[in-house]
Amino acid sequence: MAKAALGRGLGELLGEVESAYESNNSSSSKERGMDIYLDVNSIKPNPAQPRKIFDEDKLKELSDSIKEHGLIQAISVIESSEYGEYILIAGERRLRAHKLANIDKIKANILDIDSDKLREIALIENIQRDDLNVIELAYSYAQLINEHSLTHEELSVKVFKSRTSITNTLRLLQLSSYVQQMLANDKITAGHAKIMVGLDEETQRKVTDSIIGQKLSVRETELLIKDIKKPETSSVKKTKSLPKNYDLNPLNSVVDELSKNNLKVKLEKNCFKIEIKSQEDIEKISNYFRNTL
After folding, report:
1. Residue ranges per domain, the chain?
2. What are 171-207's pLDDT values in tens digits?
3. Any idea which UniProt keywords this protein has (predicted)?
4. Are 152 and 166 in contact (CB under 8 A)?
5. Residue numbers annotated as active site
6. Given 3.40.50.720, 3.90.1530.10, 3.40.50.2300, 2.60.120.820, which CATH number is that of 30-117?
7. What is the pTM of this model?
8. CA of 26: how far to CAs of 22, 29, 88, 108, 110, in Å?
């Protein structure tokens, strides 16, 4: 889809969704914009739904609430012969909770929206939700940007988020899948995650496990990463620092013997030096060590 199409599409798309909710024009017994009860098995998930992760504990809580109090807000669907009787537009958690509670019927609102807008609707609907985790939000941003060639600034205007917020959220997609999973499951925070961007995958895993296991704050995590990034020069320098002072006295006899052969020999700090002036000197040195060793 062209960039220009989204320029008009996002704003109008939200308007179309709102209009579809408010529509009271009837067509047969299934009136558009009005709540009816549908068989849960007749509703198929939106094939373009970007949301992949659902908190099982929260889903169970919602299921128990629906069993006790009923469904407050209807799900939204469109009719489709391609994917099934109906395609879900909004309310996948509510639909899943119904199935978990073994409730056969669910309150639904049938919208009059073109099926070719399913992906955009699903993305926008997810971005507007408060319970969308930050990784799902990042993927939704990335999909809109990639599919419609938007800049971060242009997207910020369309979805009413700051450009800085969008950029920082998208940076989380540079993290390893392991860190993303922990972030999506609320094991670590976005504050923890963003300071791990740029670390290699193995280090990211180690830092993440440390955060979870030791319950590190963001500040403590920053210090941990700083230590990891610190070059190991200090410990290396200590081991390679000043040379030891060796006792060279046992070599005095060697110096004396070599000097008798007119060789210039010196003992200096940790050094044994023999000055060579000719090939004959080399022969003398060689003969000495050959006969001595």
Report:
1. 30-117, 187-230, 253-288
2. 999 999 999 999 988 899 999 999 999 999 999 999 9
3. Chromosome partition, DNA-binding
4. yes
5. 92
6. 3.90.1530.10
7. 0.48
8. 12, 7, 20, 15, 11
